[in-house]
TrEMBL record:
This is L-lactate dehydrogenase B chain. It comes from the Eukaryota. It comes from Symbiodinium microadriaticum. The gene is LDHB. Gene3D superfamilies: Lactate dehydrogenase/glycoside hydrolase, family 4, C-terminal. One of its GO terms (biological process) is lactate metabolic process. GO terms for molecular function: L-lactate dehydrogenase (NAD+) activity.
Length: 66
């Protein structure tokens, strides 16, 4: 799921509806351009902290067959 033009496996806290099956829906709030830019900057900072963790948890990708 891509929200506010943030891509990748970065974990962010967003308002959502939960059920016994997990997240049912994420509330997409209207953001100004400034708020969106700040959100994206925060997501990038969080990703920079999380990336080394992912790199150590996941095995390296195998090369794709030609």
């Amino acid at each position: 799921m891509e929200l506010y033009d943030v891509e990748g496996d970065v974990f962010l806290s967003l308002p959502c509806s939960l059920s016994s099956q997990g997240v049912q829906r994420v509330a997409v709030l209207p953001l100004t351009d400034s708020e969106k830019a700040t959100f994206q900057k925060c997501a990038k900072s969080i990703w920079e902290v999380q990336k080394p963790i992912w790199d150590n948890l996941l095995p390296p990708s195998e090369p794709k067959a030609a």
